[in-house]
Amino acid sequence: MTKAATKREKSPSERISERIAELGDWRGDTLRRVRKLIKETDPEITEEWKWMGTPVWSHDGIVCTGESYKDHVKLTFAKGASLKDPARLFNASLDGNVRRGIDIYEGDKIKEPALKNLIRAAVKLNSSTKRKR
Fold first, then answer.
1. Domain ranges of the chain
2. Potential cystine with 20: which of 28, 63, 97, 130 (Cβ 3.0-4.6 Å)?
3. With contact defined as beta carbons under 8 Å apart, do 51 and 85 qualify?
4. DSSP secondary structure, 62-73, as one string
């Protein structure tokens, strides 16, 4: 058996940690903080690594993704258009019928209670949809 054949593939959580470390700036800090909030809000959430390098958090379906761009970090809620957003966190992808996004720029303050409420609502929506199937 070759070394390549015995090498263990990294878990999605390990890959997300690597991405955060690779960023090495405010974007990594933001993604780390958002990840912590997501996991605090739903300890049963599953971390996934999809679409050639996108962190994904799922519970009975995709809750949100966490992409990093040159000037912002984007949280995309898979069913965001169906979620109530009284704190008006959604500021991106507002024209779509399904997804909604939150673009976080350097220096932006994250409204933690409101973000946790969105995460809870997304998990609840996913779970209710799963039960109907």
1. 11-132
2. 28
3. no
4. EEEEEEE-SSEE
Is the pLDDT score of 34 beyond 80? yes
Q: What is the 3-state secondary structure (H, E, C) of 39-52?
A: HHHCCCCEEEEECC
Give the rounded percent of residues in the chain with a pLDDT score beyond 70: 92
Which run of H or of E encompasses 83?
none
Cβ proximity of 102 and 21 under 8 Å: no
| Cα–Cα nearest to 37, from 73, 70, 10 | 73
CATH says 11-132 is which class? alpha beta
Q: Worst-scoring range by mean pLDDT, 13-17, 42-46, 50-54, 78-82? A: 50-54
Between CA 26 and CA 12 the distance in angstroms is 22
Q: How many CB atoms are located within 10 Å of the residue 24 CB?
A: 9
